[in-house]
Design brief:
This protein has 9 helices and 8 strands. By secondary structure, the chain is an alpha/beta fold. It has a single domain, classed as P-loop containing nucleotide triphosphate hydrolases (Rossmann fold, 3-Layer(aba) Sandwich). An 8-stranded mixed sheet has the order 3-4-2-5-1-6-7-8, with helices on both faces.
């Protein structure tokens, strides 16, 4: 059975879309923040905008440069990363946050060199509380010593509060917006919610934008000065 979640940066390294992810990677490398940029949260305004696949492909692009990268599935309501990487999700970050288990036991290798994966684990009744907990902040702090980049996939901003409670605990936030469905006012609301939560929005990936050339369709990355403000 074919996996519909394609890691195109790994599987079609010479494709225009893979190149677009490398452009995104470069933009992240040159982002100006108040401090180091190691923990990067990917979210969206609403559901179904492609945040999880964008996060996964960005993690692959970063790992391809030789950096040690961990992707964490922090969508504790509808996790997807385990499907993308074809891994078990029965144990993961919730085991650490709820029972204070040994962290290394829940970090799995992927089929991609330098890229590691942490699943969501059992889905809890209180996802927002876990994301906002002191244990979560401590976990991210410890993981920073083990990895060059930590990519965090969280639920949409407007749907639930998870992204906002985690916003101040990460170094930067990338919003993924579906150009065919997101309303400008919805995108603006999502950005403002993150900023009120003391999150640093690095920029926006405008997804499903087709720019027709003679032969190709491209995805483009727009920084926050262009789109998010």
């Amino acid at each position: 059975m074919t996996n519909k979640y394609q890691l195109i940066v790994h599987e079609q390294i010479k494709s225009p879309i893979s190149e677009a992810y490398r452009v995104l990677r470069t933009n992240l490398n040159f982002c100006k923040t108040d401090g180091e940029l190691k923990t990067i949260m990917f979210t969206s305004a609403g559901p179904g905008e492609g945040k999880s696949l964008t996060a996964a492909n960005t993690a692959v692009a970063l790992a391809q440069t030789g950096k040690k990268v961990l992707i964490i599935d922090c969508d504790l309501r509808k996790p997807v990363q385990y499907k993308i990487f074809n891994r078990d999700r029965s144990s993961g970050i919730t085991n650490i946050l709820v029972k204070d288990n040994v962290k290394i036991a829940f970090i799995a290798e992927t089929d991609i060199r330098n890229l590691y994966f942490m699943a969501s684990g059992p889905l809890p009744p209180n996802p927002s509380e876990l994301m906002g907990s002191e244990k979560m902040q401590e976990l991210l702090g410890e993981l920073k010593y083990q990895f060059d980049y930590i990519i965090i996939d969280v639920p949409p901003v407007i749907a639930v509060t998870d992204a906002c409670v985690l916003a101040s605990k990460v170094d930067g936030i990338v919003m993924v917006l579906d150009s065919s469905k997101v309303r400008p006012e919805m995108a603006q609301q999502a950005k403002e919610l993150l900023q009120r939560a003391r999150g640093q929005v690095l920029g926006v990936v405008l997804n499903k934008v087709e720019v027709e050339t003679e032969y190709l369709h491209y995805y483009y990355y727009y920084d926050s000065k262009t789109v998010a403000q």
